[in-house]
Each structure stands twice: as structure tokens, then as C-alpha cells.
Design goal:
The protein is an alpha/beta fold and 647 residues long. The protein folds into 3 domains: 2-305, 3-Layer(aba) Sandwich (Rossmann fold), CATH 3.40.50.970; 318-502, Thiamin diphosphate (ThDP)-binding fold, Pyr/PP domains (Rossmann fold); 523-646, Rossmann fold. 42% of the residues lie in helices and 13% in strands. The strands form 4 sheets. Strands 9-8-10-11-13-12 form a 6-stranded parallel sheet, sandwiched between helices. Helix 23 (604-607) links the parallel strand 17 (591-595) and strand 18 (612-614). The longest helix is centred in the first third of the chain and has 22 residues, at 2-23. The protein starts with a helix and ends with a helix. 52% of the residues are buried.
């Protein structure tokens, strides 16, 4: 038994060694060190199906230590996934190969999530495990009952996001979550003792986790620990004491095995030491067939289960189902037309759709400020997952990483709230959601100096520009209730693009006064007011400044300076419109000005050097918000002076 396990593990090791060597780039040390652990995991415990990688009730295997990506690619090839061939492995880290330098999510491939930024996979795994518990509470154990395994290294546990995520997992008692800690005590710079002296066992116990210490190269101990973890009442961390670069005579246990090819001479020595008599990329048929048997055996078990949960998910159009209620709210609002904060408008929209089984809400300890929680939401609590709202605590980064996991698990639609300023904590996870094309929604309130007295530490300036620079992310900044509803509709309908909905703390005057059949925000920008048929000036604005832009247009008209106001709730959607439409919006007048209480450089693509950009290019101030607007010259009188001078 020991010999076959060692042969199976060595197949992983040498595919990893050879791929890194051929690419002259990569991280061989972790796959060499953890090969024994994952061999036992796949052989004796993991529930998976190479023929149907997207099967809903499969166990999830998340490689948080994504630099060791060859470990995952080797496992997928060896167990018979069609997504990864031997040719792909030979093209490791080459253009358009599925075997990228770090795992990149591809649906139904066996690669469950994009990892590489350390710690992200841990937060994703918490999201996967949480999604499983939510669905289990709805559909029962017979249909949904699986585990999430996450392989993390020393670096993952150094990252702050790991603390946030592991703490919440322990609090929620996610007993279906098992973390495999590659405890090799080595990082890129050298031994981890250079920077870390944590007592990991005490750390995990403080989170409410079980913790098991094993020799990561002892098959009996590996099997025993995984078996024990199956029935734990808590999440479990298995500390696998391993040697990075296992089998390398001169580099085993050293940082030199971490992130560089071993070198031709050392590879020969590893082959000799591990008694691997085969040339590069050759897996003898006897060993390959043993791996394929593991894949086939798991597939046969899976087929029986798949019949039970085949029809669990049926995508429903949340907006379409609620259209009559959405229309009613709009009509009631248009009768009153009172000033409202857009965070309140967002809450009104959520009130309509909060009973949906697909939508999972939450906030990073700001539910009352973000207005993300409605009266009909039911709270997910420790050990009780029959709800649809998560209190993430003050854990913005973990919240966004967990939402990625919730989204990747099935067709749940997560949204989470914090202040726009704290998107800086969230950006790595938001960026990965955009990369993976996930429908994740970020409700970011207190979106400008309009939040007032909390001052410059809480007043976002450069955050909108930072978010708008992320590819495949829609940044919505609605101007009133109608636009807020429209932006939410667009965020829910777009299945391959995450969305930011930036919302005001302060009440703002409405700009839309009639009901339109068309969702105008879908155009990204549209004309909301015109003071004459013949105009000299185009004013582009977003969010709370759109009502100010309308005020400007009215005042300029009294001086025979006529203009149009363009509301631009989403630059990304506007940039996707036809050239004809963009010219209609931007090229009617020689002077284009922009107005937004944030950093101005990103607006210059619409104005060029000849236009005017009104905004803020320094940090804010602590004062009542109207006084701050005046301080920065963002009032109609100051802006009109500069426009007249320019004209």
C-alpha cells in the first residue's frame, strides 16, 4: 500500500518538476512537499467527478497557495479531467495554456477559483463552505452534503485576510470546512522564523477551530487526520509538517526550492533519490491507470448522487418577478419627488427583492449605515444557515473574498456593504471577481465629501477612479431613486460582471420626473435636462452632483447661456455604446464640463484639454457637508464664474 501511494505521489512531484523545468519558471517546492497529502485526499476522501466537473454536490478543492499550481494541474490530468492534458502541462505558463502560472478559474474545469494573491483562497473557501450550508438548510442533506478543502501555506496564514476569514468561519461553526496547512516553515526570503513566531495551534483554537498536527509525509497519519475531520463539529485545520522540495538532495527544506526551477543537475538527483526511472513527462501506464481508477471510482459514486440534485437550481429573473412592485415604488416616488439619500433608495429596492432565494446580503458591520438589511431579511447565525443575510463584522476584505466563494459555488448572488472609502481594503477581492467574471455586488455608501463631519479619513476622493480602472467592473453612481433602481436592475441582470453601487449618505434632490420604459442607466449616460434647443455647453455629472448640474443649467439659462445636463451613472456602460451615440452626447457643444465630488483625472477622457473638470484633487475636510462643498468651490456660483470665464 505504501509503495503505491508513494508512486502516486511521485507522479505529481515529477509532473510538477518537469513542467517548471521546461517553462524555466514556477514553484516546484510546494507540489513536491504536499504531494503525499493530496494523494490520500483524492484517493480516499474527495468526492469529485472528472466527467462532470460542475456537479453541484462535489467536494471543493481550493488551492489558496496558488503559486503551487502544478499540484492542481497534475491532479486534474492524472484523475482524468478533460480540461488538462499532458500537452497543456508541457505548455505550463505559456500563452493561452489552461496551466497558467497561478490557477485561473474556468467553469467546469476542476479549477474552482482564481488564486495567487495569498490568503484569497482561504476566504473563497469560507464562501464555498457557507454556500453549501445555506443550500443544505434549504434542500436537505440528501441533496446537498459536501466538504470544502483548502490547501494553504505559511504565506496565506501571514496575510491579514486569513485572520478575518478564519475567525468568521469559526464563529459560524462551518464544520464542512477543512484546511490543509502546508506547514513547511519556508517562504521566499528564507525560513519563516525571519518574520513569524505564531503559535498556530493556539491561533486556530482561539478562532473556534479544531487543529490536528501530522507528519505530512506519513500516509497513515494523513489518512487518520482526514478521517477524523469528516465528523468534526467545527472547522478543522490539519497542520501537515512537510519538507518543501521533498526529495531534492540539495534544496529540500530550503527557500531555493520555493520559486525557481531546480535545475537540470538537481532534477537528476531527485530522480535518483526517489527511484523515479522515467524521463521527463513520462508517467508509466501502471501508475497512470491507478490514478484513473481513482477518478473513475469517484465518478461512479457521483453518478448516483447527481440524479438526486439535478434540478435543484432554476435561475429566476429577480427583477422580472418583482417588476410590478418596482414600478409601483417608482410611481409613488414620482408623485412625491422628495429628496432621498440613494442609500435609502437602495434599501427600498432591496425591500422588494429581499425574499429571493438567490440573493445573499450582508455588510461589514455597517448594515444600518449601508441600508443593506431590510425587515424581511433572516440572519445567518452560528450553526443555523436558514437565512439570507450575513453579519460579516469589521472584515471588509474577508467579506469580499467570501462573496467570491458564494458566487463561485452555485448561482447564489451575493451583495455586501461597506463605506466607499473602505473599498481600498476590498480591492484585491473585487479585482479577482472581475477577472473571474462573477456576479458580485458591492454596495458602497457614503460615497463623497457629502458624508460630512467624519472628515477626510472617511471621505473618498480617489476611490471611484481606482475602481473604474479595474477591467470588467461596472461602477454605478446613481443620482436619485429611479437611477438607483435601474442600477440595481443592471447589476442583477449582468451575470459576468461584478458591480459597485456607490450611494450617498446625504439626501439629494431627484433629477428624473417621469417614468420611462427604457432603463436609461443601461446607456451609461443620457440627457436628463436641456435648457434650450440651441446650446453652448454640455455638463456631465454623476450621483449627488447631477442635481447640482441641473441647478447650474437653470441659472446659466437666466444669463442666456444654454446647456444640457448629462447624467452619467456608469462610465463603463457609456464607453461601450456606439460611436454615433457617444458623439451625440459629447460632440454637440465645443465646451464639455464634468462635475463629480471626487478626483478629476478619469473624467478628462470626455473633456480633453479644452474642457473643465470640477471635483476634488486633495483630501477632504471635517465639517457639515454643505460647508465642505462650498470650501472646495462645488457650488453653482463658483462653478458658473469659471464656466463664464472659459466661454
Amino acid at each position: 500500500m505504501k509503495n503505491i501511494n508513494k508512486d502516486l505521489a511521485n507522479a505529481i512531484r515529477f509532473l510538477s518538476i518537469d513542467a517548471v523545468e521546461k517553462a524555466n519558471s514556477g514553484h516546484p517546492g510546494m507540489p513536491m512537499g504536499m504531494a503525499d497529502v493530496v494523494t490520500i485526499l483524492y484517493k480516499n476522501f474527495l468526492k469529485f467527478d472528472p466527467k462532470n466537473p460542475g456537479w453541484i454536490n462535489r467536494d471543493r478543492f481550493i488551492l489558496s497557495a496558488g503559486h503551487g499550481s502544478m499540484l492542481l494541474y497534475a491532479l486534474l490530468y492524472l484523475t482524468g479531467y478533460k480540461s488538462v492534458s499532458l500537452k497543456d502541462i508541457k505548455n505550463f505558463r505559456q500563452l493561452n495554456s489552461i496551466c497558467a502560472g497561478h490557477p485561473e478559474f474556468e467553469k467546469n474545469s476542476g479549477i474552482e477559483t482564481t488564486t495567487g494573491p495569498l490568503g484569497q483562497g482561504i476566504s473563497n473557501a469560507v464562501g464555498f463552505a457557507l454556500a453549501e450550508e445555506i443550500l443544505k438548510s434549504r434542500y436537505g442533506k440528501k441533496k446537498i452534503n459536501h466538504k470544502t478543502y483548502v490547501l494553504a501555506g505559511d504565506g496565506c496564514l501571514m496575510e491579514g485576510i486569513s485572520h478575518e476569514s478564519l475567525s468568521l468561519a469559526g464563529h459560524l461553526k462551518l464544520k464542512n470546512l477543512i484546511l490543509l496547512f502546508d506547514n513547511n516553515s519556508v517562504s521566499i526570503d528564507g525560513p519563516t522564523s525571519l518574520a513569524v513566531s505564531d503559535n498556530y495551534q493556539k491561533r486556530f483554537h482561539s478562532y473556534g477551530w479544531d487543529y490536528i498536527n501530522i507528519n505530512g509525509h506519513n500516509f497513515y497519519e494523513i489518512n487518520k487526520a482526514l478521517k477524523k475531520a469528516q465528523n468534526s463539529k467545527k472547522p478543522v485545520a490539519i497542520s501537515c509538517k512537510t519538507k518543501i522540495g521533498y526529495g531534492s538532495p540539495n534544496k529540500s527544506g530550503l527557500a531555493s526550492a520555493h520559486g525557481s526551477p531546480l535545475g537540470e543537475d538537481e532534477v537528476k538527483l531527485v530522480r535518483k533519490k526517489l527511484n523515479w526511472k522515467y524521463s521527463s513527462f513520462v508517467i508509466p501506464n501502471s501508475i497512470l491507470q491507478e490514478w484513473r481508477k481513482i477518478g473513475k471510482k469517484s465518478s461512479n459514486r457521483a453518478i448516483k448522487e447527481q440524479k438526486r440534485n439535478k434540478k435543484i437550481f432554476k435561475e429566476n429573473d429577480l427583477v422580472k418577478q418583482s417588476m410590478h412592485l418596482i414600478k409601483r415604488y417608482k410611481m409613488e416616488y414620482l408623485k412625491i419627488l422628495k429628496p432621498l439619500a440613494t442609500r435609502k433608495c437602495s434599501e427600498m429596492f432591496l425591500n422588494i427583492i429581499s425574499n429571493s432565494k438567490l440573493l445573499i446580503g450582508g455588510s461589514a458591520d455597517l448594515a444600518g449605515s449601508n441600508n443593506t438589511k431590510t425587515k424581511s431579511h433572516k440572519i445567518i447565525r452560528p450553526g443555523n444557515f436558514a437565512g439570507n443575510y450575513i453579519h460579516y463584522g469589521v472584515r471588509e476584505h474577508a467579506m469580499c473574498g467570501i462573496m467570491n466563494g458564494l458566487s463561485l459555488h452555485s448561482n447564489l448572488i451575493p451583495y455586501g456593504g461597506t463605506f466607499l472609502i473602505f473599498s481600498d481594503y476590498c480591492k484585491p477581492s473585487i479585482r479577482l471577481a472581475a477577472m473571474m467574471q462573477r456576479r458580485v455586488i458591492y454596495v458602497l455608501s457614503h460615497d463623497s465629501i457629502g458624508l460630512g463631519e467624519d472628515g477626510p479619513t472617511h471621505q473618498p476622493i480617489e476611490q471611484l477612479t481606482s475602481l473604474r480602472s479595474i477591467p470588467n467592473l461596472n461602477v454605478f453612481r446613481p443620482a436619485d431613486l429611479i437611477e438607483t433602481f435601474e442600477c440595481w436592475e443592471l447589476a442583477l441582470k449582468n451575470k459576468e460582471t461584478p458591480s459597485v453601487i456607490a450611494l450617498t449618505r446625504q439626501s439629494i434632490n431627484p433629477v428624473r420626473t417621469k417614468l420611462d420604459k427604457l432603463n436609461k442607466s443601461s446607456l451609461g449616460a443620457y440627457e436628463v435636462f436641456r435648457s434650450s434647443n440651441r446650446i453652448k455647453l454640455t455638463i456631465l455629472s454623476s450621483g449627488s452632483e447631477t442635481s447640482l448640474a441641473c441647478e447650474l443649467s437653470h441659472k446659466l439659462a437666466t444669463e442666456n447661456i444654454y446647456s444640457k445636463v448629462i447624467s452619467m451613472p456608469c462610465q463603463e456602460l457609456f464607453d461601450m455604446q456606439s460611436e454615433k451615440y457617444k458623439k451625440k452626447i459629447l460632440n454637440e457643444t465645443s465646451l464639455v464640463v464634468t462635475l463629480e465630488a471626487s478626483e478629476t483625472s478619469y473624467w478628462k477622457k470626455y473633456t480633453g484639454d479644452k474642457g473643465l473638470n470640477f471635483g476634488i484633487n486633495s483630501f477632504g475636510r471635517s465639517a457639515p457637508y454643505k460647508k465642505i462643498y462650498d470650501y472646495f468651490g462645488l457650488n453653482s456660483n463658483e462653478i458658473i464664474k469659471r464656466i463664464k470665464k472659459k466661454l
